[in-house]
Amino acid sequence: MTIFAPNFIDKYFIMRNFKTLLLLLAFVPFLAYSQEKEEKKSEMVPEVDIFFNEFSASVNMTMVQNENTSPGVGGGVGIYRVWRNDKMVNIINGVEYNYSAFTKDKVYEGSTYAYYDNVHYRMHNISIPVLVRFTFGERTKLFAETGGFMDFTVGANRKGVYKTTTDEGTPLDIAVHENANLRYFNYGFSAGIGARIPVKGIDLLIKVDYKFGIRDLYKFDEKFHNRYLRLSFGVNLK
Questions:
Q1: Any idea where the domains of the chain sit in the sequence?
Q2: Which of 78, 115, 127, 149 is at 20 to 30 A from 99, Cα to Cα?
Q3: 215-229 pLDDT, tens per residue?
Q4: What are the tens digits of pLDDT across the range 115-150?
Q5: Under a CB-based contact definition with an 8 Å cutoff, are residues 97 and 77 in contact?
Q6: Going by C-beta distance under 8 Å and a sequence separation of 6 or more, which residues neighbour residue 49?
Q7: Among 149, 155, 143, 168, which residue's Cα sits nearest to residue 213?
Q8: Which residues of 95-105 are buried (b: 16+ CB within 10 A; e: fewer)?
Q9: CB contact at 8 A, 211 and 228
Q10: Most confident stretch, 13-22, 39-48, 181-190, 202-211
Q11: How many angstroms separate the CA atoms of 32 and 7, rounded?
Q12: CA–CA gap between residue 162 and residue 108 (Å, rounded)
């Protein structure tokens, strides 16, 4: 079996720094502290505002890109800050966790005599989107949004059968469940439409969007792009 050891040190270093960056991005802005001038025994009384004001959960389906690829179902969660939340044009940033899945019929890695068969891929990504949302309506609001994102793969594995032959020419099938050996960084753009429905002081949110990953995540001949259609449900705290 192929062993992907030569770049282990570099990959470990990159992943360690990505995780540190993501922790900073996720937790440093989580609470924004605001102080209002209020007379109370000549002291300033601090108040805590929740930085994020939109929350969602989603299901997704990868889009078939060629005859060698079958779609899979995934899901995710997200927390966002919607700037200018009561205006027609909103700016949105946040942090998402997205799980995606797909199947490859055959995967070759530099050899035409040995290959992976019926390979199920599972990817776990932390995503940082930056979006512009255009909102229309008075009570029930319709919106369209578009923007870009960065993806950091924090886990990816594959499960299938490695088909090869022995030195004597005997066919050999080996069941594998291993690291998927995909690149750790991706970027792309997304576009979607949805609605905000007012209910008791909050807005319920439903959205359909498409995330289009640009970077080829595989290091061999087969093309791997993380692209999926997503249905999200959430709340906006106005």
A1: 8-31+50-236
A2: 115
A3: 988 877 677 889 999
A4: 889 999 999 999 999 999 999 988 899 999 999 999
A5: yes
A6: 31, 32, 33, 34
A7: 149
A8: bbbbbbbbbbe
A9: yes
A10: 202-211
A11: 40
A12: 10
Write out the two tokens for 234.
């959430």
**Polymer length in residues for the chain:** 238
Find residue 194's DSSP bridge partners.
143, 207
Task: Check if the beta carbon of residue 94 is closer than 8 Å to that of residue 81.
Answer: yes
Q: How far apart are CA 169 and CA 125, in angstroms?
A: 40
Provide CB contacts within 8 A for 142, sequence distance 6+.
135, 136, 193, 194, 195
Are 204 and 183 in contact by the 8 Å Cβ rule? The answer is no
Among 3.90.1520, 1.10.10, 2.40.160, 2.40.30, name the CATH number for the domain at 8-31+50-236. 2.40.160
- Helix then strand then coil, in percent of the chain rounded to 5, is 10, 65, 25
Residues 6+ apart with CB under 8 A from 117: 105, 106, 160, 161, 162, 163
Pairing of strands 31-40, 43-50: antiparallel
